[in-house]
Amino acid sequence: MRLCFSPLSIFAATVAASACLSVHAQGQVQQQNWQTMNLAVFNSPYYESSASEAEVELARSIWKDEIASIPTSKERGKLPGFVLISSTEINGKQLIFSSLSGSGVCPPAPNGRSQVDIYGECPLKITLLSAGKATTRTVEGFCHLYGLHKDNPLSLNQTQFNFDPETGVAQFRVIQHGQLVPQCSQRIVVKE
């Protein structure tokens, strides 16, 4: 699996950029079917997952080492981990995009009433499942936002995902306080 990044991406490509950029420049996403990424919650009695049981198990298997390494606190025990997850198909194979926010995994998102930006920058794992085997690539600095609090509701704060199986183009964007955050928009081309 190769991952190609848009020239507009804020993330550095660690793959063969010349071949990827030529493919990407020609491919345009035809369908704009944005979906909110689901949330799988680990180690928290306070927040509920919006992800299905199958998605929670996928997230657990993809991020098992990182979830296990989340530290504990004397007051609350194991600290929570939050995985944004979306799944689709490409060429009959399951393609999973997931991002973990948790202590020790990525810097915490800004918190407090005076904060404007409330998203964290966390790793994104792109996993292709084929015949029971998983191939995963990681992208650093993915914008991770999911509204869990009454002051920052999901209706106004979320990470969205769009995928075009014909071109292999995945797009991500963040809606924060009801507004698009341009610096968090990202486009990735997935090729086998």
Describe the protein:
The protein has 192 residues and is mainly beta. It has a domain at 35-107 and 117-164 and 171-182. 14% of the residues lie in helices and 47% in strands. The protein has helices at 17-26, 53-62, 64-69, and strands at residues 2-5, 35-36, 38-42, 72-73, 77-78, 81-90, 93-102, 120-130, 133-144, 146-149, 152-164, 169-176, 179-180, 186-191. Strand 11 and strand 12 (169-176) form a beta hairpin. Residues 5-31 have low confidence and may be disordered.
Compute the separation of the termini in Å: 4 Å
| Order of H and E elements | EHEEHHEEEEEEEEEEE
The averaged pLDDT comes out at 81
Structural class per helix/strand content? Answer: mainly beta
Portion of residues in helices?
A: 10-25%
Shape: globular
How many strands, which pairing sense, and closed or not: the largest β-sheet? 7 strands, antiparallel
Q: Total helix count?
A: 3
Number of strands: 14
Rg over C-alpha atoms, rounded to the nearest angstrom:
16 Å
Approximate strand percentage: over 45%
User: Residue ranges: pLDDT <50 for 5 or more in a row?
Assistant: 5-31
